[in-house]
Amino acid sequence: MAEKRAAATKVSKALLDLLNQSIAREVQVSIQYMWQHVQWSGVKGFAVQGELKSIAMAEMKHAEAIAERLYYLGGIPTTKPTPIFVGETLKQMIEQDVKDEEGAIKLYKQVVELARKEGDETTNRLFRQILQDEEGHHDTFTTLLEEI
Q1: How far is CA 24 from CA 4, 10, 28, in A?
Q2: How many domains does the chain have?
């Protein structure tokens, strides 16, 4: 591994920890949504499979972007996801997905606020964009839940 360069932006350990929590969450939901997409069939499953797959891929891209930012800032990205919940029914799955997106929205608002306070505009901008995506995912899941 190459020697680590010092980042131009210095941030607190608290912000680095929030970024790692964010990575763990993104890895968790990318796996969770992928397995949900694989396991569902039938009419209702057919209706959500593509959306679950698409969101799973978006979440993995978020994990990668956050990991790159964390590494640049001098942190080591986690490889451990938060607990994965697949569910046994489509309704259980989507209810959990709604909760997970709500948790992400709350966490990412904390990251945006702390990054702003610390003058880290790049992290702030990254998380504002990811937050927008997560709100879209939340809207998708709450809409799907209405139809299940």
Answers
A1: 22, 22, 6
A2: 1
Greatest alpha-carbon pair distance for the chain in Å reads: 53
Instruction: Count Cα atoms within 13 angstroms, Cβ side, for 22.
Output: 32
pLDDT in tens, 12-47: 999 999 999 999 999 999 999 999 988 887 777 777
Q: What is the pLDDT of residues 105-128, one digit of tens each?
A: 999 999 999 999 999 999 999 999
Nearest alpha carbon to residue 14 among 73, 65, 83: 73
Q: Which 3 state secondary structure label does DSSP give 75?
A: coil
pTM of the model: 0.91
The CATH number of whichever domain residue 67 belongs to comes to 1.20.1260.10
